[in-house]
Amino acid sequence: MKLLVLPGDGVGPEVTEQALRVLDWFARHRGLALDITHRHFGLENWRRHGTMMPDETWARILEADAILFGAVGSLDQAGVVPPEERRKGSLLRMRRALDVFANLRPVRMPPALAEASPYKPRITEGVDLVILRELTAGMYFGEPRGVETLPDGTRRGVNTHSYTEAEIARAARFGFRLARQRRGHVTSVDKANVMEAGAFWRQIVTAIHAAEFPDVTLEHMLVDNCAMQLSRNPRRFDVVLTDNLFGDILSDAAGAIIGSLGMLPSASLSEDGRRALYEPVHGSAPDIAGQGVANPLGAILSVALLLRHSAARPQDAAHLEAAVERALAAGARTADIAGPGEASIGTAAMGDAVLAQL
Ligand code: IPM
Ligand code: MG
User: DSSP of 59-83, one letter per residue?
Assistant: First the structure.
């Protein structure tokens, strides 16, 4: 497997380092064959070399079997990076160019973290769901977009929510196939009571279900209700299939169940599974970057997703996920998941804790 490592900005390099130690364990002990290349990109690269995305790095991105991604800085407070450069280095450009439309954001409650969650244990116990967010269409990419000046001199901002039948269909098929490997239940989330494009989403998902996946249970839910159900009874969800914007919002809401974004991994996959982008959900976290305190478990659990989806090693993936749960059960806590009065450890020590369990 040709693996491209893009640590990027902020806490990206720190958490990626721990993820790589874990990958190395699988290379040495389980015969995982990897051809690893490292490249710099992002705001830090812009500061040093005047470009957020060197052309050579972009070429590597397009030819990699899988990418392990840290974070890209979004805070350009001084506003010094030219818009053109920012576009070149943007995550959205990468998602779109790789056509990784299926974004998986699993949320599994580790029993040991019941105290770190803002929710009561009776709500969080046994939560095991995955948000399947369509990632390359919808509001993020729809045209027309922009800010325009109207004939009367006032301005308006415009973005467009747009989905073709084919874009909905491939996301739906991915969701149903995923459900077959899990508990066989899909909740498709839209705003069909208000949006024509939402009613269209529902219609296409329903048709594909009836024609191809009658063995899977399908329910439809309006997005506002879904936001509420995610906090009232998150255990009721298995696969949550939704569009790009709703998926962005609902995945943060679902992440709150665990109590820290630092715990959440993600995988973004193409149709044939031959392109894949793995990244922790948390982002660059500039406030704690460089201090060695960031939680590497989002990045480490992204390695588990890589083992499952790019390397076709479900047993190794499960082995890693179990090792993370045991490390937590043994008391390993970074600051973001430490309960009141609990001692916390740093990024590298959390990596050690997982390796010890492996
Ligand atoms: C995410 C993030 C990104 C998104 C941002 C950083 C563009 O919030 O991956 O959820 O909105 O997709
Ligand atoms: Mg988001």
Answer: HHHHH-SEEEEEE-----TT--S-H
Q: Cα(89)–Cα(72) distance, rounded to whole angstroms?
A: 8
**1-108+259-358 and 117-258: identical CATH topology:** yes
For residue 136, give both structure tokens: 């390359």
299-329 residue pLDDT tens: 999 999 999 999 999 999 999 999 999 999 9
Rounded to whole angstroms, how far apart are CA atoms 255 and 121?
15
Q: Both tokens of residue 36?
A: 């690893």
CATH number of 117-258: 3.40.718.10
User: Which residue ranges have their beta carbon within 6 Å of ligand 1?
Assistant: 74, 91, 248
Q: Where are the domains of the chain?
A: 1-108+259-358, 117-258
224 is catalytic: yes
> Is 278 a residue of the active site?
no
State pLDDT tens for residues 116-149.
899 999 999 999 999 999 999 999 999 999 999 9
Residue 151 Cα, ligand 2 centroid: separation in angstroms? 35
Q: What CATH code would you report for 1-108+259-358?
A: 3.40.718.10
- Ramachandran quadrant class, 287 (left: phi over 0; alpha: psi -120 to 50; beta: rest): alpha
> Considering only CA atoms, which residue is closest to atom 4 of ligand 1?
248
Say what the pTM is: 0.95
Catalytic residue from among 35, 76, 215, 224: 224
